[in-house]
Design goal:
By secondary structure, the chain is mainly beta. It has one domain (about 1-409): Beta Barrel (Porin), CATH 2.40.160. About 5% of the residues lie in helices and about 55% in strands. It has two helices and 21 strands. The protein has a 16-stranded antiparallel β-barrel with strand order 3-5-6-7-8-9-10-11-12-15-16-17-18-19-20-21. A two-stranded antiparallel ribbon has the order 13-14. The protein is globular and about 65 Å long. The two termini are about 25 Å apart. The model is unreliable at about 1-35 (pLDDT under 50).
Length: about 400
């Protein structure tokens, strides 16, 4: 599989003799965006692509490379170098109002290969479009808009990766559309897809953990429960006040019936999320935030460490402080950044004592980033945070430094 994908990539790249940037698919970084306003739902197509004069397919991608030195309570694994991921995009206009786009991600130096998005879009009307294939479930804002070069931090938000399953995609169908009038823009998405399985409570993390279902490659061919996962999102944007998104994702996750035999009751997993982003005029401060609430019907036979309710999110503030020609780059941007994030994997109380269950985390991350262009970022971060175990013992303290680069190509 790896050799086939690599060969296809080399053959395609060799044909791009007269390659150029497809400006219709280009999206700037939030902190440098001077184009017309976009919604998070537009992120899948608003990326830099290369297109050849005689080629029907456009190609793009990005890569992320990091160094970090992090320790918890004085214990560290030392210096670590990480090639986090390389992602390839391929897009094509098949026919009038019919488009295809795919996103293939190589993680950990090619150890893991995943198709994150591969869908065909049929455009009937700006407000009514059909999408079918492997789709990115639009829960919150980060899942849709997760490309590394768009962010000033080397690590993805904890709430998006360890509470919600970041880059969560499934096979299915759905409708989407948007419209605008004056300073206002409205968009929606609604999908029925494959979804979660018992791994969200039957995993080696020993807690309710939605990302565990990403390990189930069979979700692209079958649904454990036989019931589709429903994901819906509405977003409203004003040119002055930013974008507000409200989303829901839910469905039955357990295999409750087999060969007509009732095995268990239907058990649901439901997620509610709110996301918001704005670029403040004049000072160009960019603020983005996402908060989510998770509710899972856990069997009574499971211990209390498997939480039925979870809550978490993050707040990012990015402030450009200098934009000028520097180090040979035209109009490079230097920015300060700060992220505050919080996750509580168990909102319940112990039945025996009525005391709050722990299993929560706080992080604060400060960053300095340099953007030679909107497509490339060099970022230096300092992180410190605390985490509590299930029994609310004195918190563990984590701190460390990281440096990374990420760029579209």
């Amino acid at each position: 599989m790896k050799k086939i994908l690599f060969t296809l990539f080399v053959l395609f790249a060799s044909q791009l003799v007269h390659a150029q940037i497809d400006s219709s698919l280009l999206k700037s970084s939030p902190s440098n965006n001077t184009a017309l306003p976009k919604l998070n739902m537009d992120a899948v197509y608003n990326r830099p692509f290369l297109t050849g004069d005689k080629m029907p397919v456009s190609l793009g991608g990005y890569a992320e490379i990091n160094w970090q030195y992090v320790g918890t309570d004085g214990v560290s694994e030392g210096h670590q170098f990480q090639f986090r991921r390389m992602t390839l995009f391929m897009a094509s206009t098949i026919n009038k109002k019919i488009k295809f786009l795919s996103e293939i991600e190589f993680e950990e130096g090619g150890k893991e290969i995943a198709i994150e998005f591969a869908a065909i879009d049929f455009e009937f009307h700006p407000l009514i479009n059909l999408r079918g294939g492997i789709v990115m479930n639009p829960i919150g804002g980060f899942n849709q808009n997760h490309d590394g070069p768009k962010w000033e931090f080397t690590d993805r938000p904890i709430s998006a990766t360890q509470m919600l399953p970041a880059t969560w995609s499934n096979a299915g169908f759905g409708l989407f559309g948007k419209t605008f009038k004056g300073d206002w823009m409205f968009g929606y998405e609604a999908y029925i897809t494959g979804g979660f399985d018992n791994q969200i409570i039957d995993n080696n993390v020993n807690k309710t953990y939605l990302p565990a279902s990403k390990n189930n490659a069979e979700r692209f061919e079958s649904i454990a429960s036989g019931s589709p996962l429903v994901t819906t999102k509405v977003a409203i944007r004003n040119n002055k006040y930013g974008e507000l998104g409200l989303s829901f994702m839910g469905g039955v996750y357990n295999k409750y019936i087999e060969d007509g035999l009732q095995l268990d009751e239907k058990r649901r997993c439901d997620v509610f999320a709110l996301d918001y982003n704005i670029q403040i005029p004049k000072i160009n401060t960019f603020i983005t935030s996402e908060w989510a609430y998770v509710q899972v019907n856990v069997p009574e036979s499971y211990s209390q460490q498997f939480g039925e309710k979870q809550f978490g999110g993050f707040l990012d503030i990015v402030q450009p402080i200098l934009k000028r020609n520097m180090l040979g780059w035209d109009k490079a941007t230097l920015s300060l950044a700060c992220r505050i994030e919080y996750v509580d994997w168990n909102l319940e109380k112990f039945k025996e004592t009525n005391l709050k269950i722990g299993d929560e985390l706080w992080n604060t991350i400060f960053g300095l980033s340099l953007r030679p262009s909107s497509q490339t970022v060099l970022r230096f971060n300092y992180k410190f945070g605390m985490s509590r175990d299930l029994y609310n013992n004195p918190p563990s303290n984590t701190g460390g430094l990281s440096f990374g680069v990420s760029s579209y190509f």
